[in-house]
Amino acid sequence: MGWEEQVRRVVPYIPGEQPKQKGIIKLNTNECPYPPSPLVKEYAAAFETELLRLYPDPEASLLVNALADYYGVDADQVFVGVGSDDVLAMSFLTFFNSEKPVLFPDITYSFYDVWAELFHIPYRCPELDNDFRLVKEDYLTENGGIVIPNPNAPTGLFESLDTIEEIVAGNPDSMVIIDEAYVDFGGVSAMSLVDKYDNLLVVQTFSKSRAMAGIRIGFAVGSKKAIGYLKDVKFSFNSYTMNAPSIAWGTASIRDDGYFKETVGKIINTRERVKKELAGLGFTFPDSMSNFIFASHETIPAAELFQALKQEGIYVRYFNKPRIDNYLRITVGTDEEMDRLLTFLKQIIH
Ligand code: PMP
What we know:
Blueprint lengths: L24 E2 L11 H9 L14 H11 L6 E4 L1 H13 L6 E2 L7 H8 L4 E2 L20 E5 L11 H9 L6 E4 L20 E6 L12 E5 L1 H14 L6 H12 L1 H24 L2 E2 L7 E6 L4 H10 L2 E2 L1 E2 L9 E4 L3 H15 L1
Parallel strand pairs: 1-11, 3-4, 3-5, 5-6, 6-7
Antiparallel strand pairs: 2-8, 7-8, 9-10, 10-13, 12-13
The protein binds 4'-deoxy-4'-aminopyridoxal-5'-phosphate.
């Protein structure tokens, strides 16, 4: 008792396993199966460790300017952080400061409710419909803010930009955060709307399409006003979260657009092929626009498939949660990895 009574108790988010054994096929945390751009390797080789003596640029201007150029916005419309988890957590802290509940879907990225609990933010989770689609009207009710992952995780479904715009326009008194961790795999970014609506914040990451989960870079694009508020909170918390190598190597990734597009294209092609093969094996799935497929088999329970795959050294993600406990979330790996997955599934299914 005593001091423990004052402890802020939360149930933390547990990410997917990170097994270290060699030979594993890792399709459980939506990483990119291909390496980052060769330009990142070049920048890394040229990086002067002598520079580590100094604090990094708190504004991370090199990276912020590269992102601003790439997306055609001003530098003061860009905010960077240590992975989009960091950017999202800071955004919750900054924008959700009301007695009214923040809204996000019942089936979604599991960190949202953890942050809400941690920061004492009231929240409500409208149910997705039977096809795991968002019900727009649910987000046109009174609220203290909105978070919509688009595409959603773990379903992979993308909601149209028109739907997103209606929600943003319909909520002029709340901040609407669109979490676009997976948007590069075929979705359309809401970034084109940030100059029109100052209550919109678009968050993206280098962890998926840019193959840099290990370095932890995420960013937000929004109105100057929104980004300004976000910076005030971040600089009250820790001004030096972005480290010097991240700033340099992230910039390298942005400067190699050809490689980026090629990598994303390969993943989309593999995903579309695997969808067809999975359908032929008796799986159903929402039509993913992400780098994963959320699949359920007509006869074999997901929990069983998950265990069998794991024993075979193929790691996928299983969520033991209501409505989705018969689904596996399978990251799109290389063609060779997916062939091994499919060959093994064929063996157990037939
Ligand atoms: N949002 C969603 C929807 C995600 O699935 C993830 C990855 N787990 C993140 C944000 C966070 O990604 P990161 O912190 O690696 O940028």
